[in-house]
Amino acid sequence: MAEPTLLVLNADPPPRLGRLTGKVRVEYADEETLAARLPEADVLLVWDFASDAVRLAWPGEGPRPRWVHTPSAGVDRVLCPELAVSDTVVTNARGIFEQPIAEYVAALVLAMAKDLPVTLELQRRHEWRHREGLAVAGSRAVVVGAGPIGRAVAGALRALGATTAVVGRQARPGIHGEQDLDPLLARADWVVCAAPLTQATAGMFDARRFGLMQPSTRFVNVGRGPLVVEADLLDALHKRWIAGAALDVFESEPLAPDSPVWDAPGLIVSPHMSGDTVGWRDRLSEQFVGMYELWAAGEPLPNVVDKKRGYVPMHDHSPD
Amino acid sequence: MAEPTLLVLNADPPPRLGRLTGKVRVEYADEETLAARLPEADVLLVWDFASDAVRLAWPGEGPRPRWVHTPSAGVDRVLCPELAVSDTVVTNARGIFEQPIAEYVAALVLAMAKDLPVTLELQRRHEWRHREGLAVAGSRAVVVGAGPIGRAVAGALRALGATTAVVGRQARPGIHGEQDLDPLLARADWVVCAAPLTQATAGMFDARRFGLMQPSTRFVNVGRGPLVVEADLLDALHKRWIAGAALDVFESEPLAPDSPVWDAPGLIVSPHMSGDTVGWRDRLSEQFVGMYELWAAGEPLPNVVDKKRGYVPMHDHSPD
Question: Is residue B313 part of a domain?
Fold first, then answer.
């Protein structure tokens, strides 16, 4: 039997696939060659998961890979309608990003609580100005998104002593349903968005929802940019509807140098790095290699995306 | 019997002493009048605990207060040799600053782990540059200072998943003794100084100890400035002996505008605010009022400083 063909999109820097030597024929594609090379691929590894190339190339002619793996938590950049209705299995990198993103959110929340951006600006100006911080312990947080990342974020905030509610699509033990979101937003000190980007969630943080928040609320988005109506968030910041925000993801990435987002008052801008701690690419390679070995052996794959919902459901198959 | 006289040093903004109305005669002094007014005081509340006025005024003529309270954790600014050998009781604000300082240290550690100062500088320049953060979970921390603040800091770092050792003056269960300090420094990712300033600890972080640390180590000082030989720390940062540092306390405060500390590479400078969260002055007032009521009733005072050691010993009288 011929070796299966693994097509890797945008392999710079390349994944570490040494353990698969002799077990798979590895081919490479970039955004321009992807469409032409898809028919020869048994498996597609979307190594550059920030690319739209798969959405664009998938609807083309000829056979399609039987399995597409994206080494990211969100699958929104990959999941075009044609792929969604196909027989191709889509998997994600569940397990890799939870802990780093939870730490990153804790870093952002604590930085805002302790007024660290102002401290650093005063340091730049050699200016000593004592201020009072906020206590995170005893404050109230709402995490929107009840997947493994949202739950890890909630765990980190609870470890800091914040009373933390998690909101998912449907209520289940320990998780609030959508109907609780608005009242929870109205009394939260911290609102963290860690939801998947789907048709149901796009634009969910809009002027109405920022209007529900308190003037002391701070908002964090580590999900996907289009979950937030960016213009509405900027407006809420400029009008002091809320006290501050931190965005790690944006409607358009990389953020353009002339974007008004950079200079919004009380906003921390970071370049989509919340999940990326030293060694992350190696951990993603290792995860994929392990999954490939299962696939080649005919074993069931973990982290299979429910292509209708747009994310990996809970292991226990309860809705999330 | 005449009401006792409570002398308050530098009451701007004033402490809230309303509950003591009719129970005590409250008088006020500033740095210039303190020496002249000390003889009339039964109790001295050093409301501005950053002042050296008590050290300077105490050795003067006439009766001295029977009790001195400093609404701070450290008593180094108050404890002159003449006060140390006197019968006057000195108390501190144990219980107020532990949790805020622990959160502040967590904020600094996470900010350094996630490269937040660089992120904010890039934001200022409208520059998108992805970088990798460090994981705090699984890293190694050493907290120097086994009092309640050091232990609270260790608790916060452990909650973030860092393997955390605490070093005190003497070994006891869960606490390393001084003899373990140097080997612990040599393998720490994070070194946090939360020790009291005493003759034994002044200058303990010097060139030799920075030289023991790894090039990846980050150092945090939330104790007192003179625990660190500032010139040696700056040298260690400039020579990249260590990767970064954060100072909330300094040899001289406020830090002078022309101090070289402001611009040291990889250094976060904050204006002695680690313990000060919104409402802190009210909490300090309330603590003092409660202690005053005990004192007036002839009950034993809590938080009594061991004036030889220069800090409040553990409640169980084991050494710390």
Answer: no
| Interface list for B 226-245 with A (CB within 8 A) | none
Domain that holds residue B237: 98-269
Say how far apart CA A250 and CA A271 lie, in whole Å.
9
With 0-12 CB in 10 A as exposed, 13-18 as middle and 19+ as buried, what is B88?
middle
Could you tell me if A20 and A68 lie in one domain? yes
Residue B65 neighbours by CB under 8 Å, 6+ apart: B7, B38, B41, B42, B43, B44, B88
Q: Residue A211 CA to chain centroid, in angstroms?
A: 24
Smallest Cα–Cα separation from B126: which of A51, A15, A187, A269? A269
Domain count, chain A: 2
Please state the separation of Cα A98 from the chain's center in Å: 10
The number of C-alpha atoms within 13 Å of A290 and in the hemisphere containing its C-beta is 12
CB contact, 8 Å: B117 with chain A? Answer: yes
The tens place of each residue's pLDDT in chain B, 320 residues long, gives: 579 999 999 988 899 999 999 999 999 999 999 999 999 999 999 998 778 899 999 999 999 999 999 999 999 999 999 999 999 999 999 999 999 999 999 999 999 999 999 999 999 999 999 999 999 999 999 999 999 999 999 999 999 999 999 999 999 999 999 999 999 999 999 999 999 999 999 999 999 999 999 999 999 999 999 999 999 999 999 999 999 999 999 999 999 999 999 999 999 999 999 999 999 999 999 999 999 999 999 999 999 999 999 999 975 444 34
Residue B156 lies in a domain: yes
Residue A59 and residue A102 in one domain:
no
Sheet architecture: strand order including A190-193: A163-167, A140-144, A190-193, A218-221, A244-247, A267-269
- Of B23, B2, B37, whose CA–CA distance to B11 is shortest? B37
Q: CA-based Rg of chain A, rounded to a whole angstrom?
A: 21
Residue type, B116: L
Of the candidates B100, B119, B137, which has its C-beta nearest A270's C-beta?
Answer: B119
Interface residue of B49, B108, B115, B120 to substitute, partner A, most A CBs within 10 Å: B120
Same domain, B106 and B168: yes
Q: Are A77 and A54 in contact (CB under 8 A)?
A: yes
Complex confidence, ipTM? 0.95
CA distance linking residue A311 with residue A303, whole number of Å: 9
Long-range contacts of B179-183 (CB under 8 A, 24+ apart): B181/B142, B181/B144, B182/B209, B182/B212
Asked about B169 being catalytic, the answer comes back as no
* Rg, C-alpha atoms of chain B: 21
Which residue among B133, B262, B271 sits closest to A276, beta carbon to beta carbon?
B133
CATH number at residue B9: 3.40.50.720
Q: What are the E-state strand segments in chain A? A: 5-9, 25-29, 43-45, 67-69, 89-91, 140-144, 163-167, 190-193, 218-221, 244-247, 267-269
CB-based contact B209:B229 (threshold 8 Å)? no
B262 and A126 in contact by Cβ < 8 A? yes
SS3 A299: coil
Identify whether residues B71 and B87 lie together within a single domain: yes
